[in-house]
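Progress against Task 2.4 (sequence-to-structure conversion) is shown through the following example record, which the project officer requested during the mid-term review.
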Amino acid sequence: MDAQQTSNALFDRLQVALETASGGTGRVTIAYSGGLDSRFLAFCAVRAGFGVRLLHAAGAHVSPEETREALELARAMGLEAETVRPPLASPATLARAGRERCYVCKKAIFAHLKAMAEGGRLCDGTNASDRGTFRPGARALAELGVHSPLAEAGFEKPEIRRQAAALGLPLPGQAARPCLLTRFPYGVEPSAEALRLVADVEAWLAGRPAAAGLSFRLRFPDGRHPALHLERAGLEDGDSGRPEAIRQALLAHFGAALEGLTVTVMDRLSGYYDRIPIAAQAPEKACG
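Structure tokens generated for the chain above:
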């Protein structure tokens, strides 16, 4: 099977998955983060003739900049995303959940979105590549009966990026934007101030030329002190001084809020706390 035949087969399977998710109504409700996967799913659903409703879950776990961008990107597709503020599990509950934090959080959010969806039928942007990684939240989606048309059709992330570019969807190279809670160790209760600091720092840094082409996360590995993690793939030969220049720029702008800031370059940015034994993580009663 050549590339075009493979592509056609994927879109045929996606059509079937969307029809199943619609329950024969011709309409689908999508849990819409504004990330590439949920945008691509919405774009393809519209292109296939489905009526599309987008529900964007906003709250302390999502930066205001991310919500603003999500709404703008929906409008670029001719859609209006509804901003929903579902009840979130308390910081203490999430801390007690340990490695199941994502499961507890996602179960609460998606149960609320599912109750808003027509006929209780809700879709999300999970793709086939996601199914091979540690994602406790995926269990919550399965228990709630959330449809994942991209995964069901066999769309993997590289193919989504390729097709998004070919179809003219904006930002086909968009980086993943995990929940702000992932910047803190399991067992930590991050304060609202700490979550806002992460959102503010990452939004500010994303707009600086010094960080162009870089993937990064501001994390609190010991539950209290900030650490900027940079992905090595974005650095070029001769960039040895760039991490320190970024650190100095952050300290100059944010001052005491980032006291003790360190910068570390790593080969793999995602899944940081999942690679560390939970006993080695240093939870605090509160963070920030």
